[in-house]
Amino acid sequence: MLQPKPTIDKLAPGTHGGINYSELRKLGIPPETILDFSVSCNPLGPPPGIREALGNTLIDCYPDSEASELKQSLTKKLNIGSDNLIIGSGSTELIRLVAIAYFGRGNLVLIPQPTYGEYEVACHLIDAQVLKQPMLKEVNFQLNTAETADLIQRHQPKGIFLCNPNNPTGQYLTKEKVEHIMSTAKGSLIILDEAYIAFTEGAWASSDLVNRGNLVILRSMTKDYALAGLRLGYAIAAEPIISVLKRVRPPWNVNAVAQKAGILALNADDYLEESKVKIQEAKGFLLRELTCLGLSPLPSQTNFFLVEVGNAAKFRLALLKKGILIRDCTSFGLPGHIRLAPRTLPECQKLIEVIKETRVCSHAS
């Protein structure tokens, strides 16, 4: 048979959180019974009224390729120009568009590790070379920005991916640190992935930086408004960069239902603020209870955090058999850690009960 180009032949798919439906079928577990703590989306569900309103969305016509109405709502909310914005089918699509538009064979791209695996997948798709900066030896896996600056000066990468707050560590870079990296990397395109910024403590306004350097800011409405099944995100950048990304964007890339949901979500006053309060309450509960159980949650500035458990794969399977899904961080190079994202307080209480039961059974056996 005809073989793909060597780049694709060597490509390994990324590992993600969320339900693995074939795994649940093998275990005989109905997907609807699972409490999913493995994804970091808003656990309160979409804003009220969205589900009902989507039933009236036209699906017999092609959607607006520019997502014009959604873009208009975003420009008002973000106080930016429409020329500084592009809408995507989730932020992961935008990651690939950036790689296709700006990187090529042999280009060097700096990616601190551990982080979201799709950055590396996007680079491999176009045969770019990845320079990894390990954070595993740093306190709480924080990014050593002085080392980052040194790597930039020595290797002059074409691109730099910065997940902020970082997935899976939850560590958040200050504005001063990002500015320092930008000033060092004047010849590089910096992709600042803020998929979890809505739930981050002490977040600063990154959009002020888009006209001060080669910067693309990625955001995810999937996470903010619990729209994972629809796929919706956007990028903010200077007009010349947005113009380039539009050239490689597929037509009709954001479906009509996602566009309508995004518009309705942005009009849901106070929804995000109310969500943040409840998520922080649930996160505080989990941190206290896990610490009392002798586990070791790591500090985090956003709505998810790492927990050291010993054997993450074994821990995950034990909880999954009891209807609880967590993120095994082996794929991040952290086989002893899991990642948890709080759900509602009663669901978090259920998680703690299941962990207690599982640990008791483990000790008994």
Provide a descriptive summary of the structure in words.
The protein is an alpha/beta fold. It has two domains: 135 residues, Aspartate Aminotransferase, domain 1 (Alpha-Beta Complex), CATH 3.90.1150; 217 residues, 3-Layer(aba) Sandwich (Aspartate Aminotransferase, domain 2). 39% of the residues lie in helices and 15% in strands. The chain is built from 14 helices and 13 strands. The strands form three sheets. A seven-stranded mixed sheet has the order 2-8-7-6-5-3-4, sandwiched between helices. A four-stranded antiparallel sheet has the order 9-10-13-12. A hairpin with a 7-residue loop joins β9 and β10.
What is the domain total for the residues?
A: 2
Indicate the CATH architecture of the largest domain.
3-Layer(aba) Sandwich
What is the CATH level 1 assignment of the largest domain?
Alpha Beta
According to CATH, the homologous superfamily of the largest domain is Type I PLP-dependent aspartate aminotransferase-like (Major domain)
Count of helix runs: 14
The low-confidence parts are: none
The largest β sheet comes out as: 7 strands, mixed
User: How does the overall form come out from the CA principal axes?
Assistant: globular
CATH topology label of the largest domain: Aspartate Aminotransferase, domain 2
What's the mean pLDDT score?
A: 93
- Rg over CA atoms, rounded to whole Å, is 21 Å
Q: What series of H and E elements makes up the topology?
A: HHEHHEHEHEHEHEEHEHHHEEHEEEH
The side-by-side strand order for the widest beta sheet comes to: 2-8-7-6-5-3-4
Structural class based on helices, strands and sheet pairing: alpha/beta
What is the beta-strand fraction? 5-15%
Number of strands: 13
